Structure formats: structure tokens, C-alpha cells
Amino acid sequence: MTRLRSLETWGWVALVAIGLAAPFVVYPVFAMNVLCLALFASAFNLLLGYTGLLSFGHAAFLGAGAYVTGYAAKFLGLPTELAVATGTATAAALGAIIGSLAIRRSGIYFAMITLGFAQLVFFLVVQMGWTGGEDGLQGIPRGKALGVIPLSSQYTMYYFVFGAFLGAFWLIRRTIHSPFGHVLRAVRENEPRALSLGYDVDRYKLVAFVLSATLAGLAGSLKALVLQFASLSDVHWHRSGEVVLMTLLGGMGTVVGPSVGALLVVALENYLADMGSWVTVITGGVFVVCVLAFRRGIVGEVRALVARSFTGVKKPSSSTTSSG
Amino acid sequence: MIQALSGQLLVGLINGSFYALLSLGLAIIFGLLNVVNFAHGALYMMGAFAAWMLTNYLGIGYWWALLLAPAAVGLVGVVVERTMLRRLYGLDNLYGLLLTFGLTLIAEGIFHHLYGNSGNSYPVPEQLQGGVDLGFMFMPIYRGWVVVVSVFVCTLSWFVIEQTKLGAYLRAGTENPRLLQAFGVNVPLMFTITYGFGVALAAFAGVMAAPVYQVTPLMGSNLVIVVFAVVVIGGMGSIAGAIVTGLGLGLVEGLTKFLYPQASAVVIFVVMALVLLIRPAGLFGRER
């Protein structure tokens, strides 16, 4: 197992190095988009992969972060960090409200309720004047990091986003491996048992939900700064479905899976952008294939393979998730 | 004043009829198969398109479409159940939701590619054109027809499920499919038929809706979310509950359109929040 540990450490070093070099290899805006959606999917995975709650309304938090950050930066003239903080805090508050209502029902109802509330948020965004309705909120200024470094350059902006991503990603990883994270997994595996062991299951679910919503809001805030606009597609239920796909494709319940999924989905959408409605058809097709034949996702499959070759024992394959 | 109010209430009642038909199908499918059929909205859209295609390509009118379109879409449902849904029965029911979500994207994408974004209008059948002056308002006959037929179909489904032997099998299967199979009932076949029937109901609603709304590839995409909220509010425990909740929420929506139009798009979700606060299991529901 020590070989596996050091392999893992080197893996992280390599990933950070790739992240640092990325804007010189690919188009920086593409790389930033990937980072934002990878953060979004990782936040979502905290809920689906580790707590076993399928939220079908996470676009509401991404969108709330994006729009409020845009509003704070454009109309209130707040400095960049404060604008991001405002957007993130709004998503957290929204997460607390929606979460406290949604956890009153379990299982598949949870998905339907979160979807309904996200639709509510969508209609509110459409109707409120300052959001720009169909046109979206345009011309969001990027401002200066720490009040001195202008973010107008794609490279400074990239490293700003990369820094925020690393911080948030570290937080997610810490959460997963903390005692709190283990309780979440216990809730996922056997809720009545966790309850009978004395854990306040509802409180754990709510904290996980709010944390997930907060980080999704951070992803939205960063995305609004990168693209300098927030649009209705950020709050639409297609976005909520997209994040499920990223997580499923990459591997739910794995630490890096959602980021891998985000990279693939964003790349797919980029390359197929001029194919119009076929993008939707292909996305749907990937969804169907993942659900029918590929439920562990890419990282899940790779990990199962590695674990088998290191231990030499074939582990009984589980169709859902295992800890990471 | 009265005219505007009753006009909105009628529109609400029509929307409510569609909510009732769709949530009934969802409830039946969920009850037996334990699958939340996200594709319900897309299948409703396919029903409407099937009617439109029958008229435009084959010259077949409304009355035959009312029969043929649900049959065709129901057949699609049977194929989906046999080839895909069936593989997911042992698993967590979120996979059923995700599979049908993927199928929704495929269906909407294909129809969007073929027919674009613009609406196609479908004529009201000759026999149901015109309207009646009720004194306080003018009612187009077709709209009255939609309400009456929906209530009839819902009641008929309720009767079949609650009062016949076939319905008894269905209810037994909802409670305990393995025990039912042990009694010699072909449960897998029953699953297929049930899914096909639920899907056909959605397509039937689509044909009914074709002359009222524009036929567009995305006509079912927001509707299915509203119907999910209806199902959360009503609870999926009872068939009668699904019907009553559907019609009632349609009326609430119509009333909101009259009192405060800006809120009409969100009122059902607000009701959902209130119900979750007061009665989390839903108005007619029991926690499964």
C-alpha cells in the first residue's frame, strides 16, 4: 500500500503541474471554464457521491453565485474578492433555505423537490429587472485581485481562478476524509443505522447540502468573472443535468472523477458547438450509456483496475460507489 | 371582471387536466416500477407531434390520432422498458431517473433538429369548433371537451386500478412484486404493460393538448418539472390524490394569473414549499 500512497502523492503533484501549465497549452478561457465546472461538479459530488443525495437543482446555486457576483461587481462596484464572496454567500443562504425544505423528503422525492426549487429560482431570475432577462447580465468587470493585480489579462485571471479552485478542492478533499465525511458516507450507506447510532442525520445532510451549494456558488461567481456575463443557461435545468452527467461520467464518489467528467463534457461541447441540436442528442446518448453500462465512471473503473493489480485480488465489483 | 376571472379559471382547469393526466401516469409507473419517469414530458411532446405528423403526412385526423398516437408512443415506451429500464430494476432508483433524463435529451434534440424551435399549429377538429355563451363567459367547445375527457379518462383509470382484477394485480405488484410472482403472475410482462400504459397516457395528453397549445419540441420540458412538483404536493400514494391535486393546482395557477400574473409561473413551486413545511409526506401521501 505504501507504493500506492507515494503514487498518489506524485499524481497530485503532476495534476497541479498540469494545472499550472494549462493556459500555455490550451486556450485560457477554455481552461478556466473547465476549472469552474470541475469545481461545480466536485461540489455536487460531495452531495451525490458521498451523502447519497441527488440534487437535480444545483444550477440554482451556480446561477445565484454568477448573477449576484455580477450585480455586486457591476452595479455596486465592489472589489473582485468581495463580489465573489457576496455571490458565494448568497448561494450559501439559498442552499440553507432550499436544503432545509428538501431534506424533509428522502430518496427520489429529494431530486424532484430540488428540481422544482431550481425552476422557481429560474423564473425569478427571468423576471427580475437587473438580471437582464433573456439577454443575461452582461459587461461584468473583472476588477483587480487584491486591489492591485489587474485581471483583464487572461493569464492573471487564470491563476486567480486556479488558486480559488485549489483552495476549494482541498477543502472538499479534507471534508471527504474528515470524521464528518465518514458520517456522511454512513448516511449514504445506511441512514437508519446512522440515526440509531445517535447521529443527527438531518443536520449532517443539511450541512453537506449548504457546503455543496456554497462551493457551487463559488464556481458560478468565478465563471461570471471569467466570461464577464451571467446568462439564463447558468440557472436552467439543463445545467443541473449537465453536472450530474459530469459526475457520473468521471465517477461519482471519487475525488477527481467529477473534474475528469467536467473536462470531457466541456471539451465535447466545445468541439461539437457548431452541430446545433445534435449536441443535446449526443449528451443524452452519453447519459444513457453511462447509466446502462458504465456506472462507476472513468475514475471508478481505473481505480478498480489499479486496486486489482496492486493487491492481486479481484475485489467484488460494486455497482454504485466506494469511498475515495 | 367575472369574465376575466372565469376565463383564467378555465385556462387553469385545462392546465390542471394535463397535470392530472401526466401525474397519474407518473404515479402508476412509479408505484410499480419504482422509476421516476423524467421522459414523461418528452413523451407528451411526442404524442402531440405524432398527431401533427399523422395529419400532415398521412391526412389522418384528430379522432384517429387520439387512438393511434398514444398507441405508437406507448410502443416506444414498451421498447424502452424492454431494452433499457429493465436492466436497472435492482439498482438505486436514481438511475431510472437519470436514464429517462438522458432519453429526454435525445428525444428533444432529435425533434429540435427536425422541426426547429417554431411552433406548429394543429387544427381543432370540425365537430368541436365554435363555442358556447354561458352568460358570464364565452367557452370554446374544445376547451370544455379537454376538461371533460381528461376527467373521464382519469376516473376510468382510477376505476380500473381500484375496482378490477387487473387493477388488483397492479396494486399487489406495487406492494410486493416478488410475492405476486410467486403466485404465478407474469410480473415482468406487467411491468412492461404498465410502463407502456403510463407512457400512452402522456401521449394521449399530448394529442389533447395539440390544438390548444403550439406543437413544439420543447412543449413538455418545463411541464414535466411542474408535474413533478404536483406529484410532490399530492404524494404518489394515491391515484385519486394525483387527479385531485392536478386539477386543484391548475385552478390555483389560474387564480394566480388573475390576481397577480407575475407569480403564476412560480405559484406551484411556492405551494410545494408550503406543503413541505406543513405536511412533508404530501397531501395524500404516505412515506415509502
Globular, elongated, flat, extended or rod-shaped: what is the shape of chain B?
globular
Sheet/helix structural class of chain A: mainly alpha
Our estimate of the beta-strand percent of chain B is under 5%
Mean pLDDT of chain A: 88
Task: Summarize the structure in words.
The complex is a heterodimer of chains A (324) and B (288). By secondary structure, chain A is mostly helical. Helix content of chain A is 73%, strand content 1%. Chain A has a two-stranded antiparallel ribbon with strand order 1-2. In chain A, a hairpin with a 3-residue loop joins strand 1 (144-145) and strand 2 (149-150). Chain B is an all-alpha fold and 288 residues long. The termini of chain B are far apart. Chain B has a two-stranded antiparallel ribbon. The chains are: A mainly alpha (324), B mainly alpha (288). Chain A binds chain B through residues 54, 56, 101-102, 104-109, 111-113, 115-117, 119-120, 123-124, 127, 237, 241, 244, 248, 276-288, 290-292, 295, 319-320, and chain B through 30, 36, 84, 87-88, 91-95, 97-99, 101-110, 112-113, 222, 225-226, 228-229, 231-232, 262, 265-266, 268-270, 272-273, 276-277, 280-281, 287-288.
List keywords for this structure.
heterodimer, A: 324 residues, mainly alpha, two-stranded antiparallel ribbon, 13 helices, globular, disordered C terminus, B: 288 residues, two-stranded antiparallel sheet, 11 helices, 2 strands
In short:
The complex is a heterodimer of chains A (324) and B (288). In chain A, 73% of the residues lie in helices and 1% in strands. Chain A is mostly helical and 324 residues long.
Give the SSE layout.
The complex is a heterodimer of chains A (324) and B (288).
Chain A: H1 2-25, H2 28-51, H3 59-74, H4 80-102, H5 108-127, E1 144-145, E2 149-150, H6 154-177, H7 179-189, H8 191-196, H9 201-227, H10 237-250, H11 257-271, H12 278-293, H13 297-311
Antiparallel strand pairs in A: 1-2
Helix pairs in contact in A: 1-2, 2-6, 2-9, 2-10, 2-11, 3-4, 3-5, 3-9, 4-9, 6-7, 6-9, 7-9, 10-11, 10-12, 10-13
Chain B: H1 2-33, H2 40-58, H3 62-83, H4 94-115, E1 131-133, E2 138-140, H5 141-163, H6 165-175, H7 177-182, H8 187-209, H9 223-234, H10 239-259, H11 267-278
Antiparallel strand pairs in B: 1-2
